[in-house]
Amino acid sequence: MTSSPALDGRAALVTGASRGIGLATACALGEAGAGVCVTARDPAGVAAAVDRLTAAGVRAAGCAGSVADPAHLAACTERAMGEFGRLDILVNNAATNAPFGPLMDADADVWRDAFAVNVEAPLRLTQLAWRAWMREHGGAVVNVCTEGTHGVGPNVGAYGTSKAALVHLTRQLAGELAPAVRVNAVSPGLVRTEMARFVWEPGEERIARALPLARIGEPEDVARAVLWLVSDAAEWITGTDLVVDGGTRVRAAAASRILG
Ligand SMILES: NC(=O)c1ccc[n+]([C@@H]2O[C@H](COP(=O)([O-])OP(=O)(O)OC[C@H]3O[C@@H](n4cnc5c(N)ncnc54)[C@H](OP(=O)(O)O)[C@@H]3O)[C@@H](O)[C@H]2O)c1
């Protein structure tokens, strides 16, 4: 039994990996021995992530574009296959948390965009990875969802609904792609990234005090969970949603019992 997961010789595609959870995940997979192809919209961010991975001794490639663009999804699959000749691991991490506001004010185009980025793109990319490599050789997919789907909150209805759909898509794909491919979700609580800055920056100490594990998450907390799920250590796990939230739901459950 090995103490840390080994991914030597495998290849991964991580979307939204120029910063935050995606970059930490790309680093973790690369340090475990995988070649990693990273994506994001901003070409400079992609180039910087590739440089960082390469400097750490990781075989890295990049592909810039939006996951809402089908041509980009095809291009980044081809980039990964062209660079590594295989595609064992797919991490659907890129997401949008717009629109932010009450659902009664949700604009139809922005709502559709949330579903295009957060739900449709993970499906399309899984189809591409399946056809290019995984159907014949096997693989592991992780969809990054959110702890927020275990409850409801103000102003995050479109984001939460799309991520809840992604949790269900994860289970559905786990059933359809077994036994060749394992498909799991990771659902982070509040993590110190750009996407969530508007939440943690104004009230980090207060939020940390309210959490059982007494701090907000770091991108590496989530990256380690993804690494474990795609590794052989999790070879009998598919269709699960691994919550990485510092105990957020434990405290929420206790509060709801007190409130009756
Ligand atoms: N941070 C949290 O507290 C938290 C909690 C629960 C779940 N999550 C989930 O964790 C995942 C990562 O979020 P994060 O917090 O690490 O965010 P982040 O730091 O803002 O990073 C987002 C990454 O995705 C890229 N991206 C955004 N839209 C994209 C698109 N349409 N196509 C391709 N790439 C895109 C960004 O680069 P560009 O801007 O250059 O495209 C960036 O690399 C998301 O799925 C999010 O929903 C985060």
UniProtKB/TrEMBL annotation:
Entry-linked SUPFAM superfamilies? NAD(P)-binding Rossmann-fold domains
Highest taxon in the source lineage:
Bacteria
Q: What residue ranges are annotated as transmembrane?
A: none
- Pfam annotation, one family: adh_short_C2
Family (UniProt): Belongs to the short-chain dehydrogenases/reductases (SDR) family.
Protein name listed in UniProt: SDR family oxidoreductase
Q: Which organism is it from?
A: Streptomyces formicae
Task: Give the lineage.
Answer: Bacteria, Bacillati, Actinomycetota, Actinomycetes, Kitasatosporales
